[in-house]
User: Which sequence fits this backbone?
């Protein structure tokens, strides 16, 4: 377990060093957004029937009143941290609008959700309980972290850092076979040139031997004697 923890810590440290200043600001904003979910977001004042104390007041964090809004905020914080970690390790994938555009849109989306939650507070259900829910100071810290995340995304977008190239392995094509050039025909001789052609030697003529028609003997004629 200790080796795994040390290995994970080493990976996180190396990833943090590889991040650009704008990406580090986005990571800090995402971590701050997650931490603010542990702070009191709402204050519940309830009247419980059948008890001696008519008013019961308590602070609720985002995890204690977990709805669609809180789930979306948590998802944005985790997704931004995962994106920055993968980019720091050199993972190659394409996002529409680039990393800066995605981070800025995520921050603006959380700002919109939290502003809507200021007016539409979560309800409390239960038998014999009449509750009034108000907002607490923790949600304003979350609103500031979301604004910081949107600002960091805009800085990342202005920096225009290119995404890691997607490396695709290709097979090296074999070089084409070398073809020998065809022999060009001999050019015709210029006019007025005598062409000498070497002919094969003339075959000797054979004559029939006078021995008779029953057998044929082939003899080679001898040259005449010199005088």
Assistant:
């Amino acid at each position: 377990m200790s080796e795994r923890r040390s290995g994970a810590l080493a990976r996180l440290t190396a990833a943090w060093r590889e991040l650009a200043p704008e990406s580090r600001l986005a990571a800090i904003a995402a971590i701050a957004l997650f931490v603010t979910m542990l702070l009191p977001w709402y204050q519940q004042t309830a009247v419980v029937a059948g008890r001696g104390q008519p008013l019961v007041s308590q602070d609720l964090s985002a995890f204690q009143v977990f709805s669609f809004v809180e789930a979306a905020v948590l998802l944005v914080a985790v997704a931004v941290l995962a994106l920055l970690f993968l980019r720091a390790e050199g993972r190659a994938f394409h996002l529409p609008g680039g990393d800066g555009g995605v981070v800025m849109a995520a921050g603006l989306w959380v700002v919109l959700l939290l502003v809507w939650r200021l007016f539409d507070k979560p309800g409390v259900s239960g038998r014999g309980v009449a509750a009034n829910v108000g907002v607490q100071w923790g949600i304003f810290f979350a609103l500031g972290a979301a604004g910081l995340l949107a600002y960091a995304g805009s800085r990342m977008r202005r920096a225009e850092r290119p995404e890691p190239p997607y490396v695709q392995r290709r097979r090296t094509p074999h070089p084409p076979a070398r073809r020998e050039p065809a022999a060009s025909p001999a050019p015709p001789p210029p006019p007025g040139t005598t062409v000498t052609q070497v002919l094969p030697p003339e075959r000797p003529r054979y004559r029939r031997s006078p021995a008779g028609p029953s057998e044929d003997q082939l003899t080679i004629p001898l040259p005449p004697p010199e005088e």
